[in-house]
Amino acid sequence: MAINEVVISKAIIDRFSQKFMEYTEVDTAIVGAGPS
Q: How many helices (H) and strands (E) does the chain have?
């Protein structure tokens, strides 16, 4: 039984988009480094 490449590609994209949306739900962001 062959697995369809479209199904695999869709699963990868779905997982990536889920993770990306999780990372965009950040309340605070720390930017910069070193002494101020």
A: 1, 0
